[in-house]
Write a structure and sequence with these properties.
Distance between the termini: 51 Å
CATH topology of the largest domain: Alpha-lytic protease prodomain-like
Helix content: 55-70%
CATH class of the largest domain: Mainly Alpha
Number of strands: 3
Order of helices and strands: HHHHHHHHHEEHEH
Oligomer: single chain
CATH architecture of the largest domain: Up-down Bundle
Radius of gyration: 26 Å
């Protein structure tokens, strides 16, 4: 399962979006506001996405099998990638389609329900309430992210995080708040000016925003799915830990790969001298593995291959 902080942020966002989606749909039925329909579908997409993140976190805890000997940790990346696709299609593309559809209706002279409805005030109330709930969800995500992001700024955190849940929730909640702002501006200007094209503009802005967020998520999650190594800082820690006791002459090459957010594979060819007996080499490897795990707790899977450093011998 995802870390407790990530899970809490996902659950809070799911509950908030479920309630918001229901109220937005009710408000859309009363007023016919295009921005509200786009935001309602956006909330449905977010709710399903958070459910997918929870399912992915649970499925990732399955024990390794002969078919998947390194476990299922990267399933979390797969489900986060699916989240990005849903956000792109059900959120972004639907909002753009709705903006185009509403634009054509207005141009053809169809009656505008928002401007003619006695419930014109409902969208303002619903969108304002939704912004309060989304702000709480975003606050929770920020609070949990601050526990693990260290000195990284927000862009660095989203780009470098190996656990996908918090970056996804941060982007979704930020997008939700911006989308609500666009919807509130669009509906508000339509009511003030009597020009329904402002509602269309708000809907289109929501669609463009969600497409951009989805593309960012696709790029980041596809990189994790293909396989990312550890950062230079972590690689340096591993290299230092391997050679710290002087029993290993050096590192011939070192490779890392995240098998899951909390499982880093470390594979290294380490240099030894020809005179070292087998039991001394075995003890040196055991000590090196223990030091690496102490320095980098996520380095759960370690393979060390002893070899002679032929470049030194040749020199």
């Amino acid at each position: 399962m995802a870390p407790s902080g990530s899970t809490r942020a996902v659950v809070v966002a799911l509950l908030a979006n479920l309630g918001i989606a229901i109220t937005k749909f009710l408000a859309w039925l009363l007023t016919g506001a295009s921005s509200l329909l786009a935001e309602a579908v956006h909330s449905v997409a977010d709710t399903s996405n958070q459910a997918l993140l929870l399912i992915g976190g649970r499925r990732a805890t399955r024990e390794p099998t002969p078919t998947h000997p390194f476990g299922y940790g990267r399933v979390r990346y797969l489900f986060a990638f699916i989240v990005a696709i849903i956000l792109f299609t059900l959120g972004g593309l639907f909002a753009l389609y709705e903006a185009w559809h509403k634009y054509n209706e207005i141009r053809e002279g169809h009656p505008n329900e928002l401007l003619e409805s006695q419930w014109w005030w409902v969208p303002i109330v619903v969108l304002s309430a939704a912004m309060i709930m989304e702000s709480y969800a975003l606050r929770t995500a920020v609070k949990e992210s601050n526990k693990v992001r260290g000195r990284a700024n927000w862009i660095q955190f989203i780009r470098r995080a190996k656990s996908p849940e918090l970056p996804v929730i941060l982007l979704e909640d930020t997008g939700a708040l911006l989308g609500l702002t666009f919807a509130l501006i669009g509906v508000g200007l339509s009511l003030i000016t009597g020009n329904a094209y402002w509602d269309v503009a708000g809907t289109a802005a929501i669609g463009v925003l969600l497409v951009i967020i989805a593309v960012v998520l696709v790029i980041e999650m596809s990189s994790l799915l293909v396989g990312e190594g550890a950062s230079k800082e972590i690689v340096d820690k591993i290299a230092h830990a391997l050679t710290a006791d002087g029993q290993i002459d050096g590192i011939i090459h070192l490779r890392t790969l995240y098998l899951g957010p909390e499982n880093l594979l470390v594979a290294a060819k380490i240099a030894i001298t020809a005179a070292q007996p087998g039991d001394q080499i075995a003890a040196a490897i055991d000590g090196a593995e223990a030091r690496v795990r102490a320095a980098v707790p996520e380095a759960q899977t370690i393979y060390l291959e002893p070899d002679l450093d032929r470049s030194v011998a040749t020199a």
